[in-house]
Amino acid sequence: MSRYIGPRNKISRKFGIFIYGNKKYFQRKKYPPGQHGLRRRRIPRKSNYSNQLLEKQKLKYTYGILEKQLKRMFNIVNKKNGITGNLLLEMCERRLDNVVYRIGYAVSRYSARQLVTHKHILVNSKVINIPSYQINIGDVIDIKIKMKRKINIINSLNINKNYIKEWLLFNSIDMSAKCIKLPTIKDINEKINTQLIVELYSK
Fold first, then answer.
1. Bigger pLDDT: 135 or 3?
2. Mean pLDDT of 96-106
3. Which domain holds residue 150?
4. CA 16 from centroid of its chain's CA atoms
C-alpha cells in the first residue's frame, strides 16, 4: 500500500475524491471505474462494515500507510486523552513525507516520499530518510542545497507557496520550514471520516 504502483486515477474514482494521479483526468471521469461505472445511477446500499473499510482504505491510500503501520498508530493514539479519530489523523499529518508535501518540495506525497527515502531531506540539519518520522514543534525541515537548484523543486514551491499550512513557517530565503505548532483537525482538509475507522479497529 505504501508503494502502490497500479492505476492511480482508478483509486480516486473508486472513492469519488481526488487522491492522486492526473487531476484533469479525474475531473473528466468522476464516476466509478469499470465498464458499468458511467451507467450506474443507483448506488447500492453499503453495510456499516463496508463503509468503515472504505474509510480506512481511503486513509491508507491518501497518506501511503501500510496496514501494520496504521494499526500501530491507532494503538498509540488510543491510549491518549482526546478524540481518537482526530489524534490519528493529526499523527498522519505529522509524518515527514506528508510535511515535505505540505511545504511544497513535491507536488504529491508519492514524490515527497521519494525525496525522503533518497536522503534529500534534513530535519534539524540531520538527514532523515524515514517517511514515517514524526515532526515535532521546533523542528526545522530543509532540503539539500543541490536540490534547491532543481527546476522541479522550484516549480513545486511556486505552485504551493499559497497553500502552506499555518502550523508550518516557511522561510523563502533558504527554502526551509519550521514547525511552530502541532497540526490540529482544523488544519487538515482531508475528507476522511475517522470515526468509522475507530469503530472498525474497536471491534
1. 135
2. 94
3. 96-182
4. 17
